[in-house]
Here is the input.
Amino acid sequence: MKVQTLKVLLHEMSWVEAKEYFMRNDIAILPVGSNEQHGPQNPLGTDHLIAKALAEETAKKTGVMCLLVVPFGVSSHHKQFWGTICTSPKTFKGYVKDVCLSLNYYGVRKIVIVNGHGGNLDALAELARELRGTGIFMSVFQWWPAAGKLLPELFTSEERRHAGAEETSMNLALHPQIVNVDEAVDEKPRNHVAQAEGVTLPLDTFDYTSSGVFGKSTTASAEKGKIVLEAVISELVKHVNMLKKAKIEDLMQKPKV
Ligand SMILES: [Zn+2]
Here is the structure.
């Protein structure tokens, strides 16, 4: 007898299998990230590789369909470091919107975005608000604010910044073969001459750091990464299961009575 294993990755399904899923479900997961520098030790794909791993693991645990990760995001502020491939916020928002509308054509009304890169958040938040007005409820999950709340003691604030020990630990737990751990450095971000309280400046990563690391990264370990992975996946699974059960009508805007 042929053993049927439940497929959860859309790109691995046939259209017949996809139809079966869409006929029964109105929810999907879409991971998004970026391709940008993460210090001398981490792969350029850090943000999209982590988002993909979290999303796919959550899909397996919940039975909710997961799409292939969108690898390029809003990260022109890293471009002085070689290999950064980025989009404008407008292109990114438009691309993710088209993916969401494609899902919606097959009846998907609830979309969980697993975002691996903070620079994408403004565009995603804007899109989520816009989609809600058209009957699609999109939520955005980011692992690092979740980890900061769930495991406040595991890393210091210096270790929790871009390409720091926390992010490097996630890479060590997920794909140690592409982390050059001996290259990890600690670098205190420098202040810009125009910096002042209450002022927002159009600065790039290179204005703050020469290595690409903000703060401390040499204290990374696979063990700590595994603790973070477990905690954030369990939070994401809770969220996805909640949305899976929720009625779309209860998630939509209604006129005030
Ligand atoms: Zn990152």
About this structure: The mean pLDDT is 96. The first strand starts at residue 27 and ends at 32. Residues 38, 46-47, 117, 162, 167 surround zinc ion (CB under 6 Å).
